[in-house]
Structure to design on (592 residues):
């Protein structure tokens, strides 16, 4: 149970006078502190609301179990509207709808005890008069995901003022919902656990694993600067697990994870830096960049609009960084560009991506002449949730932990293969679906959180995972022949023991599957990553369609192309956005 206290105190009689709220049932509003509760995303939210003469004086959240990070913006939005405007009619925060609804309902519950008419608080708020806002900084960054924030923090560390424009209600983009796994050659740690690795091997895996189609100069820069990036993140306070594994499709055990779940550790580190009094980074949330401004052949700023309809002109004296992410959530772009999946990427295929991954950064860059590359290369991942397409509910993304079986209970692929191979072979199975089969030695069971913040108990309770004390029992739950699944597990264990030759060519494992209870997790292919995007050079300068540098314009992260070829290695995207995000920040400040 997490408890975070959110207290909003009103100051000033004038404001209070304007907030008097009608009473429920005609009685007088009561004065005092009232407790209310409601169910959010993670469980019960309890608030204490202080009311005086019909005015809300403060709201204190005294208990909640909402997902870290994802509750902050909804709580802040609803509580500040309630306290400052006496209104609860605020938009739900995308991606945190249940937390928004939960906090609103908990406050309403407390207010009904105070005999305050909460129906009036749901009336539309007074119309906002749209403003034209001019702002200036050394560097303007479009997109507050991992690449944009790495760039912003780097620029700030070099003494620049920075504005970050983020269209969603919170920072993080795909980065905050990522599995958190990042590929880094880290000889000290890897040697300690008996893993051979080298920068050259990481280069080869990345370049060959992407069909030798990437820009080798960019690949080389990424693999060579990964460890320095990790150390830099540590200097910002990020704490790492002391182990490496193989994220699905990573091809080698060099995937590191922060201690904090999913991608939250990265965004937490950046946010804590931004919150420092001297960071000089201003974040505009709910603000969508609509256009890159060019003057005299140079990119000098960004135009944007916010949720209230205000227009912004943001001028950048040193550079503009495009870090607006990929287009996994944009069905029209997927269908227009796809060259790998024979037109299957329409709305019937879901995505792991957040709803803001719509590719505007690419289109806006093209509008000022930027070249694009590899746009036809769109990656799917075979471990999506069958209902939502997201990675939520997956028991593990680490190859060492599981085998993949089809609905007949048979393995059909080397689980440590490239992602495009894993997906194509899963499409060839009955219902294009498969089960991950795991035992209880390798990942959290019971009420501990999995990497995606679920507990195994809740996944089993809601039928999103299955648990049994024996493999035959598990098979029966899944409608498989118990003998077939048992035989599959026996053969896998014999491979681990070395008494059976590797089947399908699998070479990565850690343990036999033998410790009950056993688990199964049904998963399907969903759209995951877009390898294509704007063309950049080694300094992340954006290149135009004639092969020339566009002055003042930089790009980093999934908005760019040329780094992964036709198949991105698992856990290489976080390496990419870290390394090139930092380079973009530095290049903009130094005017490269
Ligand atoms: C569920 C999931 C799990 C993943 N797991 C891993 C993993 O474990 N390891 C790994 O290496 N990779 C992983 N990836 C891939 C990786 O997370 C992404 O490629 C990476 O985070 C992209 O970072 P980014 O900063 O380029 O984009 P994002 O993090 O998506 O940030 C881009 C931001 O730009 C904003 N934006 C877009 N358009 C505009 C606009 N017009 N104006 C203002 N803002 C705008 C978006 O809202 C977003 O916040 C995963 C991806 C997903 C979806």
């Amino acid at each position: 149970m997490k408890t975070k206290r959110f207290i909003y105190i009103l100051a000033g009689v004038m404001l209070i006078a304007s907030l008097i709220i009608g009473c429920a049932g005609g009685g007088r509003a009561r004065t005092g502190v009232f407790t209310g509760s409601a169910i959010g995303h993670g469980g019960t939210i309890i608030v204490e609301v202080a009311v005086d003469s019909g005015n809300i004086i403060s709201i204190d959240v005294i208990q909640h179990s909402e997902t870290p990070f994802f509750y902050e913006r909804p709580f802040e939005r609803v509580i500040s509207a309630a306290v400052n405007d006496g209104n609860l009619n605020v938009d739900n925060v995308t991606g945190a709808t249940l937390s928004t609804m939960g906090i609103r309902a908990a406050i309403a519950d407390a207010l009904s005890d105070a005999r305050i008419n909460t129906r009036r608080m749901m009336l539309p708020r007074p119309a906002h008069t749209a403003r034209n806002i001019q702002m200036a900084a050394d560097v303007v960054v479009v997109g507050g995901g991992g690449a944009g924030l790495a760039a912003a923090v780097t620029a700030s560390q070099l003494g620049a003022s920075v504005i970050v424009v983020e269209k969603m209600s919170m920072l993080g983009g795909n980065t905050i919902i990522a599995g958190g796994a990042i590929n880094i050659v880290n000889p000290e740690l890897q040697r300690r656990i008996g893993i051979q690795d080298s920068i050259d091997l990481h280069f080869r895996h990345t370049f060959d694993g992407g069909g030798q189609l990437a820009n080798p100069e960019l690949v080389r820069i990424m693999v060579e600067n990964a460890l320095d990036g990790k150390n830099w993140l540590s200097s910002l306070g990020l704490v790492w697990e002391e182990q490496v594994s193989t994220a699905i499709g990573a091809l080698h055990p060099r995937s590191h994870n922060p201690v904090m779940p999913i991608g939250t550790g990265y965004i937490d580190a950046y946010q804590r830096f931004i919150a420092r009094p001297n960071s000089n980074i201003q974040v505009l949330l709910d603000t969508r960049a609509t256009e890159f401004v060019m003057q005299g052949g140079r990119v000098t700023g960004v135009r944007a609009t916010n949720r209230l309809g205000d227009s912004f002109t943001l001028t950048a004296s040193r550079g503009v960084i495009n870090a607006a992410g990929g287009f996994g959530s944009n069905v029209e772009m997927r269908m227009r560009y796809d060259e790998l999946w024979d037109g299957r990427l329409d709305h019937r295929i879901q995505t792991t991506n957040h709803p803001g991954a719509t590719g505007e950064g690419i289109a806006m860059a093209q509008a000022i002449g930027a070249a694009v590359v590899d746009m036809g290369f769109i990656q799917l991942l075979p471990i999506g949730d069958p209902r939502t397409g997201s990675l939520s509910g997956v028991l593990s993304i680490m190859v060492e932990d599981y085998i993949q079986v089809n609905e007949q209970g048979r393995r059909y692929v080397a689980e440590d293969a490239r992602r495009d191979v894993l997906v194509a072979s899963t499409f060839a199975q009955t219902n294009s679906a498969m089960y991950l089969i795991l035992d209880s030695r390798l990942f959290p069971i019971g009420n501990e959180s999995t990497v995606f913040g679920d507990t195994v108990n809740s996944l089993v309770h809601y039928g999103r995972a299955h648990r049994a004390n024996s493999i035959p029992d598990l098979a029966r739950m899944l409608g498989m022949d118990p003998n077939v699944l048992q035989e599959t597990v026996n053969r896998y264990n014999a491979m681990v023991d070395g008494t059976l030759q590797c089947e399908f060519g699998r070479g990565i494992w850690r343990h036999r599957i033998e410790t009950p209870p056993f688990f199964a997790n049904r998963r399907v292919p969903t759209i995951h990553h877009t390898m294509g995007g704007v063309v950049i050079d080694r300094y992340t300068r954006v290149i135009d369609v004639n092969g020339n540098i566009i002055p003042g314009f930089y790009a980093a992260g999934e908005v760019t192309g040329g780094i992964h070829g036709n198949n991105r290695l698992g856990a290489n995207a976080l390496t990419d956005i870290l390394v090139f995000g930092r380079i973009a920040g530095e290049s903009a400040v130094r005017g490269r």
Remarks:
- The longest helix spans residues 216-235.
